[in-house]
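Dig into this one:

. . .
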Amino acid sequence: MEKIEKMATSGNEELKPVLITDPEEMRRRLNELRKEGKTVGLVPTMGALHYGHLSLAIAAKNETDVSVVSIFVNPTQFAPGEDFDKYPRTLDADLELLSQLGIDFVFAPSASAMYPAGFDASVHIGGVAKILEGECRPTHFDGVATVVLKLFNIVGPNIAYFGQKDFQQVAVVKKMVADLNVPVEIDMRPIIREKSGLAMSSRNEYLSAEERGQALVLSKALEKAEELIRSGVRDVSALYDEMKRVIETAPSAKIDYIYVADPDSLEEMERVAGNVVILLAVRVGATRLIDNRIVEPQR
């Protein structure tokens, strides 16, 4: 990633963020700053940062007084047999990137700091967490909701920034915040894509060169669906059929789901009526990728 500084507000000097690994120290430092009237912005990540993460970090830097990026590969959101052990961990490189943006703090706790001996609490969200990723990965969103609530309790952000690529995850976090009266604003920012159209993801590095080319069928299928909706197609089954046709042009692609829903409730639609979100999960070789697009039909 070159010229990262161009993404930030001009005038930022390169300054390494303060790295904190202890939850209580993180809480104490931010409590002191809040007493001075400072606002706090949090970007929760699992590291291996790319431009998508950095766009969120820049928003936090530009819109709040104190910017915090958490880096924690959360074991509780991985099921047995998933890629927890091989998930990329690149803390030094991540710190260098965040230094170029002038981020104030990086919170990078260990698993034992977040889940000490005897820990057995969890947060369970129904509804929006039960479908799609929740059906494919039944324990995933309990792990996500639990760690995000812990981060909110430790950092105490005024605003937390999330990427649209994990659209259902954002819906789950918003539901948790509303149901549990957590005093934080959730700000979802648009997907950042490579020039090819591939949605940026830390898991893209698992793809071979050939698989990266085949992975473009996700964005192409979403583009085709948007084109059809804007041309007047309202029958969701017709959208499914066309997206399936596009995806199946990639020999190694296997569809987990194609889903067209109301963007607020995630209730599945049979006919397009108003704004929709189209969500995909597709395995390309051994790598599972997700993508989505929000479409507002022309009236």
In short: The longest helix spans residues 140-155. DSSP finds ten helices and nine strands in the chain. Residues 36 and 60 are 18 Å apart (CA to CA).
